[in-house]
Amino acid sequence: MLILACPGQGSQSKGFLQEWLDHYPTLRGRLDELSNFAGMDLVALGTQAEEEELRNTAVAQRLIVASGIAIAREVFAAQKIDGVVGHSVGEITAAAIAGVLTDEDAMRLVAVRADAMAEAASLTPSSMAAVLGGDQALVLATLENLGLEPANLNGAGQIVAAGSKKKILQLVASPPEKARVIELKVAGAFHTSFMESAVDKVRSFASQLSARQPVMKTWTNATGENISSGQQFLDLIVNQISQPVRWDLCMESLNQPGNQLVELPPAGALAGLLKRGADKVLSVALKSPGDLSKVNP
To answer: What region holds the Malonyl-CoA:ACP transacylase (MAT) domain (predicted)?
Structure first.
């Protein structure tokens, strides 16, 4: 099966769209249309914005979702896609590709999500940190003892902790046995109880959208399962704002012989996790148009 993987926040980098725009002249028009729905000039952001601006939650989420949608439409228009999976905000990209949401509704939804999460993050000093290695049970126990929450269980020996800024700094200073802890450059404790106010705002907006049945297999971060109901998938996207991303469970479901996972731009993070945590699948990161030669027809 050919499965598209849609990355989440933190995957963006300065100028990542430029080579794609140079290679596909009509891509600019697609992005301009999505920019109108998002209320931001996404072409300028994806080609000219500095790293500091790209780390802004309101910018990053809009840009990542729009890039994934536009490039998927441009590159895979004539190719049968069997399934799609997203990581965190990438699930909105997945919803558009799977036909659960229109491209316009996906961009309107991510705009509300991004702004609501940025506002929630501003209420209390909070942060996130990647815990690399160590025994998973010990890592989770350490987080619980500190009053931190596991925001992402990414598999391949990686858990992302989130919570108050003070507690994250304590974790960095005293990591679990045989683990390294790296504080992430993010605006807040995403996928935790710190985001409850954002959930309410996004749920209110999402209730106005019409969700359709997915036209391909669509896996959820909540349980790693394939979801056949469009409304259920939309509900899970909303709830997931304050719930952990279970990418480890997604990889377990996807790790089947014959599966080919192609990570849409801005690519690299998910393909790296797949190579370490899903040894039965072929993973390809589309970092540039030249990487399309690695995709099996």
So the answer is: 5-289
- Among 162, 183, 204, residue at a domain's last position: 183
- One domain, residues 135 and 49: no
Assign residue 130 the CATH number of its domain: 3.30.70.250
How many domains in the chain? Answer: 2
What is the extent of the structural domain holding 173? 126-183
* Catalytic residue list: 88, 191
Same-domain status, 259 and 162: no
Instruction: Please tell me whether residues 201 and 168 are part of one structural domain.
Output: no
Three-state secondary structure readout of the chain:
CEEEEECCCCCCCCCCCHHHHHHCCCHHHHHHHHHHHHCCCHHHHHHHCCHHHHCCHHHHHHHHHHHHHHHHHHHCCCCCCCEEEECCCHHHHHHHHCCCCCHHHHHHHHHHHHHHHHHHHCCCCEEEEEEEECCHHHHHHHHHHHCCEEEEEEECCEEEEEEEHHHHHHHHHCCCCCEEEEECCCCCCCCCHHHHHHHHHHHHHHCCCCCCCCCCEEECCCCCCECCCHHHHHHHHHHHHHCCECHHHHHHHHCCCCCEEEECCCCCHHHHHHHHHCCCCEEEECCCHHHHHHCCC
pTM surpassing 0.85?
yes
pLDDT along the chain (297 residues), means of 10: 95 95 97 97 96 92 98 95 98 98 98 97 94 96 97 95 97 96 90 97 98 98 98 98 97 97 96 94 97 92
Query: Is there a single domain that holds both residue 89 and residue 53?
Result: yes
Q: Are residues 254 and 269 in the same domain?
A: yes
Largest CA distance in the chain: 53
Contact 164, 125 (CB under 8 A): yes
